[in-house]
Amino acid sequence: MMHRRKSISLNSPARYPRMTVKGISINYLRFSNAYMTIWWGMAFPGFGQWFQGRYFYGLILIVWEFFINLQSNINVAICYTLAGRFDDARQAIDQRWFLCYIAVYIFAVWDCYHVGIDLNRRVMLAEREEQQQKSFSLSSLSIELLALRDSRLSVAWSLLVPGAGHFWLHRKLIAVFFMVIWILTIVQSRVPQGVLYTMVGDFTGATRVLKPEWLLFVPSLYLFACYDAYVSTERMNELYVRELNDYLARRWRAVPGRVAFRGGEEGL
Amino acid sequence: MTTELVVLFPYNANIEIVLDDLKRRGYTSNSAMTVPLHDPSESPPTIAAVGTGGRSNWDIGFVLGTIGMLLGSIYGFVWPGGPVLWALAGLIFSFGAGVGLDWLLRIRKIHRRRKRSGIVLWIRCDDAEAKRLQTWLADFGVDGIGVIGETSGLQG
Description:
- The complex is a heterodimer.
- Chain A contains 13 helices and 4 strands.
- Chain A has helices at 34-43, 47-52, 55-72, 74-82, 86-92, 95-128, 151-160, 164-168, 172-189, 191-199, 203-209, 212-215, 218-251; strands spanning 19-22, 25-28, 136-138, 143-145.
- Chain A starts with 18 loop residues before the first strand and ends in a 17-residue tail after the last helix.
- Chain B is 45% helix and 17% strand.
- At the A-B interface, helix 1, helix 4, helix 6, helix 10 and helix 11 of A face helix 1, strand 2, helix 2, helix 3 and helix 4 of B.
């Protein structure tokens, strides 16, 4: 049935495991679309890597991005440039750090594109491989489980707090990463106060209190967390369905000939 | 006389509880079987998926949404209304535009939403047992039960 390539024995470990459900978190292989990978890599260095499931390396790039962006004052310069105040932009930028920014930025995008292509070939093989996948894990600190989940709900939670959708998916490490950088960013950019001022109609107050050097991190962070929660839910549902199907096929497989239909004898 | 039940289950752990209970009641894989339903259009990923896989219908919406929110928050520092209001407006407008654009681009090439029909469980039992099984199965949130047999389970 289906398109499974028979492996020598299901007891032998998979060459390209589709998923790991272990310890305090879940990770899995997924196709990463080249354009989307490049886009997220450009929106925030490190997000391209996160999109592919490479969290440690992505986190290093994200920390670097926060550090170098704030040191070279790029966000403020972007604000001035788009407002047409080019001289102010020139003044704002810190030339010492600015040049360090460029090479790493380009490398981060290049890297997630190239690894993505190679990774996708392995995903293709992993999809075809017959393997015994796990859908549940119990450890001294945590319980991880797969289930069929509504992707709209995980996006809704992520809209409230980026990271919450990932928590719901039992992807706890990445959820903590998201929440920490989100809280740090909105507190530093004074978003809660800005929202408060805006809601009572004090727009000049909101403009005064918000810090552009941090505020410009918010859009990519916010939208990426929601997008990743969405695609993660879809992918994990796929993997859950596959695991359950495989389990049922092993234990309670319907075999042709065993099912006896008797309606025909009565001339139906 | 024997009756056959065909039960449609959604994808959750209830099917595993039901099968375990059936095993305890003496059912074997000869008298209870499952048929997971697959999407017939599903095929193994080909080499094309290396370049085009991992697309979703919301991609352009999220990309444009990020750009719109960013521009809104930047120009909000200049325009009346402030960054928060303009970021929100930029996000909602561009996200909608992106989803619409994605939809337009998809009219020719249809990305179908993946369907998940469920799991079919087939049980062979005797007539008297069939009724009891049906009442018992109703508690598991099944999507539907069909009866094949001498006497229809519903008419008694």
